[in-house]
Amino acid sequence: xxxxxxxxxxxxxxxxxxxxxxxxxxxxxxxxxxxxxxxxxxxxxxxxxxxxxxxxxxxxxxxxxxxxxxxxxxxxxxxxxxxxxxxxxxxxxxxxxxxxxxxxxxxxxxxxxxxxxxxxxxxxxxxxxxxxxxxxxxxxxxxxxxxxxxxxxxxxxxxxxxxxxxxxxxxxxxxxxxxxxxxxxxxxxxxxxxxxxxxxxxxxxxxxxxxxxxxxxxxxxxxxxxxxxxxxxxxxxxxxxxxxxxxxxxxxxxxxxxxxxxxxxxxxxxxxxxxxxxxxxxxxxxxxxxxxxxxxxxxxxxxxxxxxxxxxxxxxxxxxxxxxxxxxxxxxxxxxxxxxxxxxxxxxxxxxxxxxxxxxxxxxxxxxxxxxxxxxxxxxxxxxxxxxxxxxxxxxxxxxxxxxxxxxxxxxxxxxxxxxxxxxxxxxxxxxxxxxxxxxxxxxxxxxxxxxxxxxxxxxxxxxxxxxxxxxxxxxxxxxxxxxxxxxxxxxxxxxxxxxxxxxxxxxxxxxxxxxxxxxxxxxxxxxxxxxxxxxxxxxxxxxxxxxxxxxxxxxxxxxxxxxxxxxxxxxxxxxxxxxxxxxxxxxxxxxxxxxxxxxxxxxxxxxxxxxxxxxxxxxxxxxxxxxxxxxxxxxxxxxxxxxxxxxxxxxxxxxxxxxxxxxxxxxxxxxxxxxxxxxxxxxxxxxxxxxxxxxxxxxxxxxxxxxxxxxxxxxxxxxxxxxxxxxxxxxxxxxxxxxxxxxxxxxxxxxxxxxxxxxxxxxxxxxxxxxxxxxxxxxxxxxxxxxxxxxxxxxxxxxxxxxxxxxxxxxxxxxxxxx
Length: 820
Description:
The chain is mostly beta strands and 820 residues long. The chain is built from 6 helices and 45 strands.
């Protein structure tokens, strides 16, 4: 199914040559560092070793019981220092990557084996955190860590880099942050991320923006997919029951994503079946507007010793809303089985499924203005939806992963994913405006009924390897692979015969009883097949002490066979070469400076007057910044300046048509420039005090100087903190956060039948949230989350049609968590 075209032969030959040069090495790294570690208990000594070497060390917590290490002092290679440190402890180590090692019991003669304690299950509430990790360990795992930071981020380059080593702006929402803030969906999670603007339209549709561009690059466990409308099949409503963490890399991310916008890439990383003992958790929650939710999460070994392990989790939520008539029933289930196929190979298969069945789905917002330009004021519960409106969605993901330890720190990975989402809508669009506040209902609002159904399906295969190599006496890291993705999208429309065309009278008296139209004849609107074949390579070169270069490239062949509104065509742009380069300079032991350049491309279906398709839009990302990391990389800070540019943007060619057609012709122009700043502080100030603070400002304009997306704010500030009073079984945790959104302004609104344009401006607003959690005992806890503390009235979305969607008023949710 996934055959790379012959034009890839050059890149594959280059990749093979690089792989031959990159001879795997064992732990004897030649670069030396200064070490000063006294004889200490194992856990304290390992902490100092990680600080002084920059290498991540993982091991079972019970391995350190009663073990004391040997002192290490002087300039040594990291491997030699660790060998000396572990001398006489009965432990040995092996490299997982160039920057991470795992400790394990050393082989012992019969009768002299060291007996290690049992693996422990750590965590609280609905967390199942396992300290023992198999050969396919996830170095960035956040579950059970009680942290707002993760040590490793792979989304930008596929190399195992710390946030400070990554030459782009990155944010990670960990399992602890998800739990503290009671984030129940992907939309909830992304609403907390630095620099991401969330715009809602309809009760079931959400768009995300970063640096002035829409976010359409998503990854599921590192496998990319382009979602032009993430809401179409309900992906934005995906439950967090299966998510370990969400990694977000801002800016162009073409190295791993392929096509897309120069906005951001969102990587949803799933939980693993890594427990070698039986463990489980549950939640039961109730909140405002009859919002009820329950979850479970069970993990267990299926064989003695845990060589075969399984995990199953599920969530059920039934809720109404502050918006009249709206309610939604959501069911999510996730299962995964993981097996150790010998000492070097791990395989896993996972399946997730989710259904969303809303009723009273609003397709339109409320009018912002009357025809005379005065501001309309409605109750926040006002809806334009009829009772029968709905947007049913379902999504199913099947993933297969195989990881094999090649030795010398090299690991080969194979990933296959089959994803499918379906949707079925019946909606009513209400538009127009009343003449004035005193004439509500006099003219009525117009309406338009609509129904469609369809699906998207993606098959993806990703084969790659990562590991260290030596060159010119220094140790470096390499990742290379090939990838094939097939994506099908199909959409059909149903013709609607309205039961009435009288429109809506007084919207304030709307009760949703408008009769459902007859949806009849089905017409195929879209039937698209997109194929992407890629090869990629990225490397981290140690140029000198404290100076690293991260460089890579991706070659992508992309084509689409598309049927759209009775028109069939093939779009196959030239082979796309995507470069990536970043330089990181270690200024101190905790602070580094970086500069990076990367690109991304986005195919477009516009034609010039001669019928030639325009070249893909080309996105460039320039970024410089400073990053810091403290407390064993558990507190990370960054400040970045960025400049993004898009070229080959389509612009209508006056009144010209494509030869022989009735379609408008386009020309390519230099497009959008976005500039701005982002700053973030995230992680743990102490093991009990967690914090995330983020500010962003961007100014994205087209060649005429107009804002690209005027209905999102220039500036955003988000902050959240939590503090745990004690580590005992009866501890109190509390905290809260704020979101400040800058002003937004939409020009050229023509309300209703008005021939005069107006401007709508929303002033900056501040939202505040609180939470508190009390551990009743070591097994049970109760948590309360209060959102929009001051009951601020605001819009989550406004558009150029003069419509707005209200944000949620003050709400509360109480959750009982238990584990066993």
